[in-house]
Amino acid sequence: MLLPSLLRRAHLLRPCHPPRRHLSRLLDRYGFVPPASLTPTAKEISHGTGAAAGQKRRTKKPPYRPPSSLDRGDRPASHSDLPFDFRFSYTESSLDAKPIGLREPKYSPFGPGRLDRPWTGLCAPAVDTTLRSVDAEDPAPAAEKDLEEARRRERERVLGEPLTPAERSFLVEKCQKNRTKRQINLGRDGLTHNMLNDIHNHWKHGEGVRVKCLGVPTVDMQNVCHELEDKTGGLIIHRHGGQLILYRGRHYHPKKRPVIPLMLWKPAEPIYPRLIKTTIEGLTVEETKEMRKKGLHASVLTKLAKNGYYASLVPMVRDGFLTDELVRIDCKGLPKSDYRKIGVKLRDLVPCILVSFDKEQIIVWRGKDHDESIQDNMHKASPSVLQLESAGVKNENVEQEEASSESAAGEDEHGEKEETSSDWSSFDESSEISSSDEVPDDK
Questions:
Q1: For a designed S-S bond to 108, which of 86, 119, 235, 310 qualifies (C-beta 3.0 to 4.6 A apart)?
Q2: Is the dihedral of CA 141, 142, 143, 148 positive or negative?
Q3: What GO terms are given for molecular function (predicted)?
Q4: Distance separating alpha carbons of residues 307 and 304, to the nearest angstrom
C-alpha cells in the first residue's frame, strides 16, 4: 500500500515538459536545456519590435534589364553628312521602279530615334522631299545639286594625285589572297548600307581592300563598280572577274571618316507590280500560252550555279537572240528571289520581255520589234566583261614593262599618268548612259 502512494507522489512532483510530439528524441535522451543567454527576455523582444517599426523600409532593387540598342535614353539622334539617300541595297533596289504599296508600316531599320532622317519605306533621303516644286522645270531642288557638287569636290580632294604604275602594282600585290585575309564579300543583296561601314573599317589597316562579288549583282558589274566608288569615295584600281581592289585615296584619314549609322534589321521589301503578266503585250491569251509552252521546250542556253559569277550572262542572251526568238536559262537550285532578280536585270540590260519563271527556268522573248542592228550597236557601245578584263590585264602588263624601261622613262610616265587619271567612274557613267538611252522601250 505504501509503494503505490510514493510512486503517485513522485509522479506529481516531476517537472512538466512541453509536449513531445514536435521535439527531437535527443532532448529526451540527453536532457538538453538552452542557456539563459540564448533565450531572449520580454524587454529585448519589445525593444527589437520597436526598432524594426522605426526603421525605414528598404527599397526593393529593380530587376536586371539587359542593355538594348533601341534604348536611346536622352541621347540625341545621330547625324550623318553623307550626301546620298540611305537604302538597304544600293545595287539591287532601282530608283526607276516605283512600288505600288508597302508590306508593313514605315518602321525605320535604324531604330526609333536613332537617325535624324525620316524613313519613307524605301530610303532615308538626304534632302527633304517636300521641298520639291511641281511647277519648276527641274523637280530636283537646288540643295541636291549642291550636295552632288560638294560630294565630287570632296572625293577629288581625298583621292589626290593618280597612282603611278609602281604604286598601283604594289597595292594590288599587297591585297592578294597570299598576302592578306582581309576581304569583303558582296553577295546576293549587293552593296548594302552596313557594308560601307565595313569598308571604312578595313581602310583603317590598309590603303586598299579586296572585294569579292558573287551572285545576282554580278549580272551588271559596271553598276557594282560605279556604286562602290560613288558611295565609298574610293577608286577601283584592279579588277579580275568578281574580285576588286578598292583604293581609299592619298589624303584619306581614318579618324575623319564619315559617320555611317548602322541598320539594325533588314527593312521589308515593298510590293512591286507583277513581273509576269497574264498576257504579253501585243499577243493574245492563246499566243501567250503557246509561247510559254514553246519556251519550256527550247534548248537551254546555260545553267546558272548557286552564288556564281554571272557577268557573261547578258552578252550570251544577246547572242542567243540572233538565232532564236526565245531563250531559256536553267536556274535549278537557285532561290526564287535570285532568279527573279536576274530576270529583271536581263529585261533592262538586254533588253527583252519576260515570259515565264515556271519550273525554275527563266524564259525571255526578244519581242516583235527585234532588230539585229540594235544588238550590234549595243555590243559595240558596251563591250563584254571578258573583253574589259582582258584589256585591263594587258594594260597592267604594258604599264609594268614601260615602268621598268629606263630609256623612255619621262615620256612613258607622263602617258601613264594620263591613263590612270581616268577612273572607273567615268567609264561607268558612259556605259550607263549608253545602256539607258540607246535601248528602246519594250512595247
A1: 119
A2: positive
A3: RNA binding
A4: 9
Going across the sheet that includes 235-240, the strands are: 183-186, 208-213, 243-247, 235-240
- The count of residues in the chain is 443
pTM for the whole structure: 0.69
Residue with cell 542556253: 301
333 pLDDT band, cuts 50/70/90, is very high
Alpha-carbon torsion angle 98, 100, 104, 108, nearest 10:
20
What is the end-to-end Cα distance of the chain in Å, rounded? 135
DSSP annotation of 124: B
Who's near 121: CB < 8 A, 6+ residues apart? 99, 102, 106, 267, 270
CA atoms within 13 A on the CB side of 267: 28
- The alpha helices in 178-273, defined as continuous H runs, are 193-202, 221-232
Cell numbers that stand for 23 in this block: 521535439
Mean pLDDT lowest among 143-152, 226-235, 252-261, 424-433: 424-433
CB atoms within 10 A of CB 435: 20
| CA nearest neighbour of 318 among 294, 367, 352 | 352
Residue pair 364/353 in contact (Cβ under 8 Å)? The answer is: yes
Q: What is the pLDDT of residue 130?
A: 62
- Contact predicate 240/210, CB 8 Å: no
C-alpha–C-alpha distance, residues 36 and 435, integer Å: 103
**Which SS3 state, helix, strand or coil, does residue 157 take?**
helix
3-state secondary structure of 353: strand
Q: Which has the closest alpha carbon to 232: 255, 252, 206, 262?
A: 252
Average pLDDT of the segment spanning 11-36: 61
Strand duo 353-356 + 361-365: pairing: antiparallel
Query: How far is Cα 335 from Cα 182, in angstroms, rounded to an integer?
Result: 28
> What percent of the chain clears pLDDT 90, i.e. is strictly above it?
47
Longest CA–CA separation in the chain, Å: 149
Task: Determine the Cα–Cα distance for residues 443 and 210; give it in Å rounded to an integer.
Answer: 42
